[in-house]
Each structure stands twice: as structure tokens, then as C-alpha cells.
Amino acid sequence: MSQFIVHSIPGSPYGRAVFAALEEKRVGYRLAPVPPGTLKAEPHTARHPFGRVPVLEQDGFLLYETQAILRYLDRVLTSPALTPAEPKAAGRMDQLMNICDWYLFQGVANVIGFQRVVKPRLLGQPADEAAVAQAMPKAHAVFEELSRLLGSRTCFAGEAVSLADLMIAPQLDFFSLTPEWAPLTAQRTNLCAWLSRMNDGASMKATTWEKIAQLAAA
Description:
- The protein is of the alpha+beta class.
- 59% of the residues lie in helices and 8% in strands.
- It folds into 2 domains: 4-81 and 204-217, 3-Layer(aba) Sandwich (Glutaredoxin), CATH 3.40.30.10; 87-201, Glutathione S-transferase Yfyf (Class Pi), Chain A, domain 2 (Up-down Bundle).
- It has a 4-stranded mixed β-sheet.
């Protein structure tokens, strides 16, 4: 099978989800770095008309939207399977992937992560404290639901890593860099234990911001 090319920005949690899935599948891939200021311009808009990352490329086939990419990879690379065979567990996985997109990222991670990590690290600007404070009630609601759905399970959709874990782990690992992580997880320690297990895995270790930045430089 030809090599997979991932067009992404080093540090993107969504890009990392794709890298982690490829690591789980134990296949080679190449990072085609997208400079942050070029997302809304050619040539990237030819790959993704809405100017986001990641985009997967294989033999001229281009696919954007992280959920679509992850499901595609799980179909063409069948081992190890990252979608539960049991229908209810698969349904829970799909639900959690949508929670990640619509509630964890929208209005929470894209606000707090941007203000606390992206602005100071990449833009050299201070955080907007009012924006962070406004996002915190929704953040607590999302973290509470993630904690409830995880419960005492090893992974979100059962005892084995699924696409849901690979989507959510990069988002929460990003959160762990912020001062908001402590209050958000103080009463939700199962999320901390789950993230620690994920970060101890080979796919997360291989896709840290630093390691993906090294791929970009190469």
C-alpha cells in the first residue's frame, strides 16, 4: 500500500488523532506541514475548501474531516481494528467522536486551548482571561459527561482503544497544558487515569508536539 501523506500543523490535536491512528496501524506516513497562516489560502484550500487540518492524501485521493479520515483508515487498514465489533459499543464510539467535535472542541478546546497554548506559544500574545472564563461552564459540563461515559472502563468504548480514544486523547492532552486542567479534573479522576494510560501508549508517545515538529523540520 502506498504511503499516507498527512497535511497538518504540528501541535494540532486533530492532526495528532490521525497520526496516532496510523501509529496504531503500524504503517508509514509522511507529514506535509501546513504553515498556520496559510490555512485559508492556496494551495491548502484546494485540499480543504474550508481551510482546516488535517487532510489525508493517498495516491491523489484527498480526504478531509478527522472522523472521515479515521474511519477510512480503519477500513483500509484492518488490523488492529479500532472500531468495536459489538454494535452498542460502536454506537458509543460514534457518539463520543461527535461529542469531541461538537462540544469538547467547539466553544471549549478551541477557546481555552487557543488562549492558553496557541496564543502564547505560537503568537506571543497573552490569553484573553474573559474568553477563558466564559468557556469554563461548558467545559465543566463536557468533562462531566466524558467522565460519566468513561466510568470505570479502561477505554471509552470498552476495554480496547477505539477511534474515540484516539480523537479525545489529543484534545485532553492539550488541556493538560493549561491551568484549567486541575479544576476540570479534580472530581473526575477517571479522566486523568485514562489520559495517563493513553499517554503511556506507543501511539501517543510517537506523536507528541515535539516529535511531529521534528517530522515537519525534516
